[in-house]
Amino acid sequence: MSLLAPLGILGRFVLQVLAATGRVSLFAFSAVGHMLRPPFYAREFGIALLNVGWLSLPVVGLTALFTGGALALQIYSGGARFNAEAVVPQIVAIGMVRELGPVLVGLMIAARVTSSIAAEIATMKVTEQIDALVTLSTDPMKYLVAPRVLAALIVVPGLVAIGDVIGIFGGYMVATGSLGFNQAAYLANTVNFLEARDIVSSLVKGCAFGGIAALMGCYFGMHSGRGAQGVGRATKGSVEAAAVLILAANFLLTGVFFSL
Amino acid sequence: MITLDKVCKRFDDNAVLRGVDLTIAKGSSMVIIGGSGTGKSVMLKCILGLVTPDSGTITVDGEDVTRAERDALLARFGMLFQGGALFDSLPVWQNVAFRLLRGALARPRDEARAIAIEKLRRVGLKPDVADRFPAELSGGMQKRVGLARAIAAEPEIIFFDEPTTGLDPIMAGVINDLIREIVSEMGATALTITHDMSSVRAIADHVAMLHDGVIQWTGPVSGMDQSGDPYVTQFISGSAVGPIEAVR
């Protein structure tokens, strides 16, 4: 009996993971279905665009700027060990566009937007505002979830593109300002080195990470427990899930784009 | 007419409703009384379809609520929630006119605003409240806004979930009078759940007592004091001695 106990624990864990995966998948399919079928709530969509996109610009911009600068310093310092300091523009560009831009923007969106969506919807749930929506003949999936997920799918690739450019600019500022790189040569090396596949992968990752961030916020908010503790748990859980899923999706998408 | 027939609902090991039978006549005001946690809110949410019963049937004018076209069914209802459940992100007038700004009952924005202001006036609030946000209002004002939202689309059936909870006795009396007046002038069917006996006497035509998952007693409000039912007698008197267990 005692020998089987660990197997039982493992089995229960696997079942829980599979059940949670199923619930999240069904929720995601439902959200997509509601995005495609009327009625559409233009005001809610506009507010979501503003919150996810415009209001995230400062944190995304600053994160990318400092990361690009630090990346230039690291590559210069590391490259000096084998006389490869000249590759700073290329590695900053490829590092920002392929990996750091999308991942950092995704994680910033998870911290800023996922938490905010989860807390807002969870509070609406515990104060019966979700029930009130239903009694007012309004489907919460359509009114609360679909506009937020759609806005994130559309606007986060744009944020990633802006983050990529600002990150490269951060590297450019450090490299030309304190590492002695020629300005025109730095820009030419950056532009010439990047391929269309790098940029496409960056934007696709942005779309996927935006969708994950908004979906997790909505899912945990809609399934929040009671009271302040329920709201807190929903918020924490949403950010944890979004961050882990973004990193896992990044690994998968990197494999899809660059392992062939 | 709303009819509940042997409605049961269980949450895990907790059987909240164990076979509720109740009939609410069209145009009447029924008040459900009972202690905290006896399933009054669950029963109300079952009628609205917010909670699905495990067994039993609920019909509105003969139509099974689980099979009815949902939007059409809900368009017949208005509801005042216990905490108001006003949408924080919307100004008061948009809360009141929520149903009139979208969906099948949508009206032009100016017309919806005018109706909202008229409903706010009906519940004793001035037009300047219309552009404020719910967080800027007192508890009593939030209840009034919730009441205005419940009646904005002139529903046939209105539910009131603990309408006086958290209000001082004077404000509770004002809300009770408003509910009675509005239900009478609209000719609506009203279902109220409360444990405030002053609300019961002010609002009810008929009273039903829910205890232990079933309706223990039902009858006209005039017969409540002479019901002879030990549960109702104990509840009305507020005594700790009787068949209802009082945990201390």
Q: Any chance you could write out the topology, listing elements then pairs?
A:
The complex is a heterodimer of chains A (260) and B (248).
Chain A: H1 5-36, H2 42-52, H3 57-79, H4 88-126, H5 129-135, H6 140-178, H7 183-193, H8 196-222, H9 227-258
Helix pairs in contact in A: 1-6, 2-6, 3-4, 3-6, 4-6, 4-7, 4-8, 4-9, 6-7, 6-8, 8-9
Chain B: E1 2-11, E2 14-24, E3 29-33, H1 40-48, E4 55-60, E5 63-64, H2 70-74, E6 77-80, H3 92-96, H4 109-122, H5 139-151, E7 157-161, H6 169-186, E8 189-193, H7 197-203, E9 206-211, E10 214-220, H8 230-237
Parallel strand pairs in B: 3-8, 3-9, 6-7, 7-8
Antiparallel strand pairs in B: 1-2, 1-4, 4-5, 9-10
Short description:
Chain A is an all-alpha fold and 260 residues long. Chain A has helices spanning 5-36, 42-52, 57-79, 88-126, 129-135, 140-178, 183-193, 196-222, 227-258.
What structural keywords apply?
heterodimer, A: 260 residues, mainly alpha, 9 helices, B: 248 residues, alpha/beta, Rossmann fold, 2 domains, 6-stranded mixed β-sheet, 4-stranded antiparallel β-sheet
